[in-house]
Queue: 2 jobs
Job 1
Amino acid sequence: MADQNEAGRLKQETALQKLLRRPEIGSFTVMLIIIVALSFASEGKSFSALGLKNNIAIIAQYGIIATGAAVLMIAGEFDLSIGSMIGFAGMAMSMMLKWGLPFGMGEATPFTAFIFTLAMTLIFGWLIGTVVVRSGLSSFIVTLAFLFFLRGVTEVSFRLINKSTQISGLPDYKEESWFANLLGGDVFGWFYDLWFMLGGNLNRKGAQWVDGFDARFLWWLIISAVAYFILSRTQFGNWIFATGDNKEAARANGVPVNRVKVTLFMFTAFCATMFAACQVFDTNTSDAAKGNLMELFAIAIAVVGGTLMTGGFGSIIGVVFGAITVGLVANAVFFIPAIDGAWFRVFLGAILLAAVFANERIRKRITGGI
Amino acid sequence: MSDPYLRVEGLVKRFGPFTALGGVDLEVYPGEVHCLLGDNGAGKSTLIKTLSGVHEPTKGKIYIEGKPVKFRSPRDASDAGIGTVYQDLAINQLLSVTRNFFMGRELKGSFGTLRMDEMNQIAHDEMLKIGIDFSDPTQAVGTMSGGQRQTLAIARAIYFGAKVLILDEPTSALGQKQQMGVLKTIKKVRARGDIAIIFITHNEIHSRLVGDRFTFLALGQTIGSGTNSEIDDEEMRRLMSGGAEMGDLKQELAAI
């Protein structure tokens, strides 16, 4: 039969060939090269006990927002408001902690400050999504508007209430509040304890040097795992892919395209809020300029991780590799003082361009060259 | 002869002052292929869009198994057993065959997870029933040929309960061999006996090969209908060109 011959034209591949054709292979290879190169160039310092902690801290920050950006891009939209949303969330949380809850509801605890902030950012996410799907305008322009709007609101609110665009010297809430500790404290202490027991992780006095990773490491793992699970194993995940690939086809088959998009704009707002919350409770400070340019890093990492600019395709595992790569290079200057920190942006620009070309090749392969 | 599954009586559809359909009658029987023929602008698209619930008719009635029905949305029509396979097929190229097959109607297990293995199996089996053995339903649709995509869209419509299958020019934009593949698929669906097929085409040979019954449209009107044996080739050509006599056309062309 003619059609059976057509099917027979698909070459059967070995497991290794399949592995090499996975969309994550590019970002994985780049990540390996960076890890090896960095180990040599920094004489092992980037992966010392403290180096690892600091690297993971920035990787997790990037990873959290890049996951939100990637899932939204798979559904075919962009969010340029992520950075301003981080600034807004950090401002809202720290101001509530310093000046109390809005409407005279009294003192804020870390938990209530977080919940109130999350409610506001989710409403903004919902609003952005709703404007995008209702107006049919490009999300690029709508979220660009919110980039300016939210950053402006953040600064204005700071000056009106706080008289200054930064807050520092908040009490260390981690000491008493389990919730603040969950966001800004240490996690995976057992890893460093074990390292110490095995004879490493020593400071100059010979005592244990580092106690654990930043809590955002755990949040990054949780957010990535949940996003991976939803994308690959659930109905909603199938709807996300379908929406991004061909909106009209998805709609014709009964996929609630608009609801999917609005939900994902709320998800990027959630990721931005988690980014801000981890920062506020870790450092007990906040600043109106926090999160600046982060939306672009998030999109860049999503693309480096293999997410298509045109939607419909992407991989959370790839985004994890992308976040590790970009985070390591961003931090490299601290371990290799001889290099100029601006090389980071040169590198990011170069791999971004390379990734776009690589992704386009992957897309062509999947769609049979169309 | 059994009763028609779908009957259309005096269907009129106006868009403002423009009459797209000016009283069309149609009867579609299970186990039959009903070819809908006509030139561009004859009203074929409007007719199928009305039947699949995209447009509401201005006048006239649609009966399903003898009962009058009103479709307010494509969902209504699809619930009544009308499965429309449009030219663009409503397929996502980057998604796997299975994910396309179940798009919007995924099978969920406990905790809302997808029953992926079961869905793979069903997608494979349903497509095998009407003609292609697509060994790996996790493959992206982008790797399939045009004919295979057509089969996927048809298998999907049937699996989700289509009793009337509307195929909108399924053989256009395909290579010769793939066109034959689609015709084979149509024959296989016909052989089931319980599904009525409305086959829209420009191609006289294709309609001859698989059609049981023909309806010809021109300028929004039914200008002729009949079974395969009732209509000879000459008559068919005349009706397909909108009722003009071939002789007249020859004269017109000669005069230029």
Note: Chain A touches chain B at residues 1-4, 6-7, 10, 233-239, 241-242, 245-246, 248-250, 252-255, 308, 312-313, 363, 366-368, 370 (CB under 8 Å).
Job 2
Amino acid sequence: MLQFLLPGLGVTVSVTLIALGLGGCIGAMMAVFRVYGNPVVKCLAVSYSVVVRAVPVVVIIFILFFVISAFIDLSPFMSGAIALGFASGAYQTEIFRGAILSVPRGQMTAARGIGMSRAKAIRCIILPQAFRVAIPSLINEVTLVLKDSSLVFVIGVPELMRRAQYASASTMEPLLAFGTAACFYILLTLTLSKLLEAVEKRFAIQF
Amino acid sequence: MKVMTSVLCGILMLGLCLTGAAIAKDTIVVGTSADYPPYEYTDDKGEFVGFDMELIRAIGEKMGKKIKIVDMGFDTLIAGLQNEKIDAVIAAMQASEERKQKVDFSIIYHEIKDAILARADSGIELASVYDMAGYKVAAQTGAIQEKWIQENLIDTGKLPAENYFSYERVDNAAMDVKAGRVDVLLIIADPATALAEKNDLKIALITRETVSAGQSIAVTKGNTELLDAINKAIEALKADGTMQALMDKYKLL
């Protein structure tokens, strides 16, 4: 059973990490746009997070694989990872927006008061505080993306879930195959959330 | 689900408009859904094996082309052909009218039969498929077998509708036959042998009466060049005995 599933583990982890990284970048950027942007970028950020959250992740994967990659040569692996990142970005936009709004307004006023530009105040004062606030919600998002990564098999990326289906088909032991896959998902979720909790502790603001 | 399907169709249509012309190459990319033994599955090293896989490699050899097999979800295969992500599909696929509107099919490379499974100790003896009507019957959701049961047993009043059970996966259906919740299971014959062994079932009847088509290889609509070459290769493999040897190797009926 393990020899069926182990190769999929690496694929699942790398798809998840790429998606989370990409989603984090998009999310942070869009959140700043939403809170501090001019009406045009604000509108862009709002429509991104509303539309993408309304569309099932599978559909985003299909769009990227079948439509976009007609122009750009993307492997199924990259299409899947980017699509997941794009979807996760919308959720992370909301996470970061909430986090940014939780930073007291006085912080911005004070930063501007000592002569920082708006951009610098956002970068050096607001975001570092907001990231810390965002971590607990991000742990939740990490587990969701990890499980959503099982969707990329539809375009032919042999990740953990697809490997479990192979194993179930060839060994005729569905319970063992999917049970083992479930154990791997639990292990991955625990590891990733413990990691983020450690980051949270390490960077906690001391009062 | 309906909304989702129409959204998907729209996207795929859009994708269809945007695809460019296929490039001539010496490798044929073949899509499959590797979760259906004995036709296509993976061994413990992750290699694609099975009757269809060996057949397509033999076809490639006859055509003098390399074969690259990619695994996708079964539902995605037709879309993959339409978008020319893949050149051909071999996935125990039958040339139904619906599919024929979207892709082109080769000649039939494997005639299929259906099997009826029952518990080994049940004492169920069937002389014809219609004898199933006296028992609790199972089949796979959306499968051709289900359609046959609906049209020939339920609609004609031979089988009460509450005695028909529809399962998402055939292995679940087989487990329920073993557990005694249903009496007989109508499925395609080739996977039935392994399923029967695994669950202490017996094959009560093998029939062609419930079958309307055989399995074909699909190619992108209009790719007649590839289709002709594949058809020729299938004919040649049938003539030189390779096809029979493969059928024997994978115990196809």
Note: Chain A has a mean pLDDT of 91.
